[in-house]
Structures are given as C-alpha cells and as structure tokens.
Records
---
Amino acid sequence: MKLENIPQLKHINANNFFLLAGPCAIEGEDMALRIAEKVVSITDKLEIPYVFKGSFKKANRSRIDSFTGIGDEKALKILRKVSETFKVPTVTDIHEVSDANIAAEYVDVLQIPAFLVRQTDLVVAAAKTGKTINLKKGQFMSPESMKHAATKVTECDNEQVMLTDRGTMFGYQDMIVDFRGIPTMREFAPTVLDVTHSLQQPNQSSGVTGGRPDMIETIARAGVVNKVDGLFIETHFDPANAKSDGANMLDLKHLEKLLSNLVAIRKVANQL
C-alpha cells in the first residue's frame, strides 16, 4: 500500500505513524465537524498523516435497542462534508456487500470490521471499488491468518490494503494485544494498531461493552515502540454520553498530549 494513493492525505513524508481517528459512530453533523476540526489541528501541528474515522452505521451491537445510526445516507453525507471542509480523507466500516459501492461514493477508505474479515464476498466487494481497504484482524484470528485476508484484496488487482490489530479474545470479557503480531502482519501489509478497541471489555451482562481507557497511552506507546505503521483511536469530546463505545474511547481533550508523546517516541524508534 502507498500512502500517497489515499486522496488528500497530508504529511506523508514526515516519517511519522499515520492516524485513523474520530468518533465510533456519526451521531450528527455538528459533533463530527467539531471532532474533525480538533484532530486536524493537532495532526497538522505534529505532522501526522490523518484519516477521519466515523461509522455511518453500527451493525454489530450487543442489544437490539443499541444505537445503530442516524440514517445511512445522512451519515455518509456528513463524512463527505468532513472531507470537503477539512481536506482530509475519511474511513468508514461496511457490513454488507451492498454497502461497498454505496460507501465508496462518499469515503476514501473502506474498513472491514473484525467479526466480518473472513467474509470473502464482503472483502472482495470492497476491494473491487478500488478504494484503500482496512482489514481488521478478527479477535479470534492469528496474525498469520491475516495474510489470506490481504490476498483476497490484492487478487482483485487492488494493492491498497492495510491490516489492523484490535486485540485478541482473552476469556469471555477481555482483550489482549499480542505485540508479536505486529511484525508478522507487517510482512503482508502496512499494519495499524487499534488502541481503543483493544481495550474493550465485551460481553458484559448489561449488554453494554466496557473498556479501559486509562490504558490507552500504555498500549499506544507499545505499538509505536514496535514500529507499527499506523494507529487507530476513537475519540469524542464527551465519551460518557457517546452513543457507541463510549466506555473505551479517548476524551478528545487528552488527544494532543497523547499524540505529542507518541511522536517523540516515534522519533527515537526511527533511530533504532
């Protein structure tokens, strides 16, 4: 994958990690623009290549009454507005084959959720759009097995593929990151560490996923030290009231300090 093939991606020659960051789900236009404006300001200052992240719908929910979205077209139009307003690329999840061509009209990167990364028809449909594809490693999969997921994309004549580790199931209600997987997956494609989802505590009896946001910097630092190519961080200005995944998101007010520390670590790691 070549970063320069992602439209509007800036700072690609800064020798930094790239960043996929934003809210878990698009809750409305004002919140999306507010978050994007802040993250763009920080990443421009630190020269971090930045892709705005926001799910246009949430299909994988614990409970039937969980928030799933504000409407597909409405959310996708907001993602387009973020891109046009701040001149940054955008990424969103897709869940069904029919989502691929629809979402590709609005965003620059299509993301395959971890639970769906073995769904061949979905991966192929995404690949055939010609967009950059982010494949999230299943919580139940080995790093080595992601080679086959990446191959499904490249055999569709699409070399724009990256892999994301988002933790591995550790019992019923916890995740763990095996950092041995980073160099393994980097052999197949540029590799991203999903910091916030790696700290989820799923399958709670309440039906609401928990998390450990206090460990975000710990996991992110370890990823940067191990020369991960990119970081994935969900962030919100009011995580407690976010409509999805608030329990493991980073409060937006802490993002600049975190990224500043990580950029400093990256500079040292680049010298090793």
---
Amino acid sequence: MAEHPDSGALSETYLQISPNILASFPKFRPPVDLYVFDPSVGRTGRYIRGGERLSRDGQAEVARYAEEGLLYLLRDDYRIYAEHLSRKLGLLLVEEGFQPQEVAEIFFIALRNRMAEFLNQPTEDTLEALRTDVAILAEYIWIDPGRVAFLTHTLERDYDLAVHSVNTMLIGLALYLRLTGGKVEKTVLISLILGLLLHDLGMVMVPKFIRDKERYLVRRDRESIERHIEAGLNMVRRLKIQDPIILECMDQHHERLDGSGYPARRFDGGISTTGRLCAVADSFSAIVGDRPHRSARDTAEAVRMLAGDGKRYDQALTALLAQVMAERVTA
C-alpha cells in the first residue's frame, strides 16, 4: 500500500483520476474500479468496482475525492481505461500523470477504431470524427516532436486494414520528423497524418478473397489490387478532399524509383518526397504485419529488405527508418 499520494510507489501502482477525467466517465457506472487514498492512515482502498452503480451521494463523494487529488485507478486496469479515454482524446492535451507509453497506446486505440469506422462507412461524418482525432495527435506531436518515439512502440502485428493504416502513419510520421529535424507546421502535420492513414483507402473495394489470397496472384487479381489506387482517389474526391499531401500519399505509395511501381510507372524524379516516404512506411508496415500468405517478419529484417532495395526505395529514407527502429529497440 502507498504511504503518501505523491510518492513514487503510489504513482507506479495507481493513476490519479482528475476532475476532468472523472467527468468523462458515465455518471452512474464508472468503467474501472475506483480507489481512494486515505492520508490519515497512508493507505489506498477500493471505493467501488467498475460497472457497479454509484448513488447520487456516491457521485458527489467521488467528485470530492477527485477535487482533493485522492481518487485513483489501478494501472493494471489501464487497458480498460485506455479504451474509454480513446474516445476522449482531448484530455491527453490537458491532463498530467500519464506515462508517455500509455498516451501512445491510447492514441493507437483511438485512431485504429476511428479508421475502422471510416473504412466501414466512409462518409463526411466519419471523416470529420477522424479529422478531430488527427488534429489532437498533431497538436500533441507539435508541442514536442520527440514524443513520436513512444508512438512507434505501439505497432501491432495483427493485420487488418485499420491496423495497417495506423502502423503506416506512425512510421511515416517518425520518418517525416527525422527528415525535418523535428521542425514542423501543424497544418502540414495534420495533412500528412491523414494522408498516411488514408493511403490504402481503395483497398476496401478489393474483394477480401483477393486481398487474403495465399497463393501467387494471377494477372486479373493483381490488376484488381492495382485499381485500389484510383478507387481510393475517387472516394476522397466524393468527400471533397483536395489536399495535395493526402492525394500524393494515396496516388504514389506504390510507385518505385526504377519505374516498376504503379499506377503511373513513375521514375525517380517523378515521385514526390511524400510519395517516397509513404512508400517506405507502407512497405515496412506490410512486411512486419501477419498476413494470410506469410508470417510477420521482424523489424530488423524489414529494414534490411528495404535498405537493400536501393533501386526501388529512397535510400535516405530507409537510412532514417533504420535509425528510428534502432532507437525503438534501445528505448
């Protein structure tokens, strides 16, 4: 048990619940167990279990404990809490007490869920919800670009389109901040994050049996996959997206420096920096993800594969990718 609410032992075991965070909980049924620190005895005890009903008197008492800085949740319950807070991302910009890795996990959960909603129903409403969360992430990174190092620790191996989109965004964002030395404009950051997230949007139009095929793709299947570029661009045009950074991510992430890519078979000089960056991030994320036709490769092998393919991938960017992954291992 803790000896003092400001002690290191308490903060390692518990996460303080501020009045703002408490206000984001359902009033009658908190999503996690709530604990109260008693300064008179220097101990923390459970006040109510998650999901149990709070009376109105109980709500008032819990609110008072939060105001006094005595209300906590177990860090072991963090996953449940993270799912809840992923729908209230704005709190991450104003609340203290979160460990950087916890914040990174909350952002991953939030953006994965937003992308899944958008991919399932790409409408103006779901796009606006995605934009809102992207703006919060951009603000968080703009305040301190070094925070991106923690975000790259949240990459997931399980492959689905939403997870792949977020993995690609996190790697692409880390590469961009390396490329610029951490100097960024918030509006550019928002556009790049959205472009990296939406780069494979057109894949929702490719039949799942083709996407998940375990054997070699025949020409007809490959043509179907290549058409996902134009399909995605058509979808964002209907949503009135005209941002050139977003469009370059979507249009050029399968172009290769030697002209072997698609859809336009562009060569070196015809591929934008954004397109090159998205190509590296997309390919890396695909390699480290579990797929029906092969198991995930480890990050070191993925870096070696891309760095060794200088004819197709920008070697300045693959060198930066190696740095990002090396720091991820040692952090």
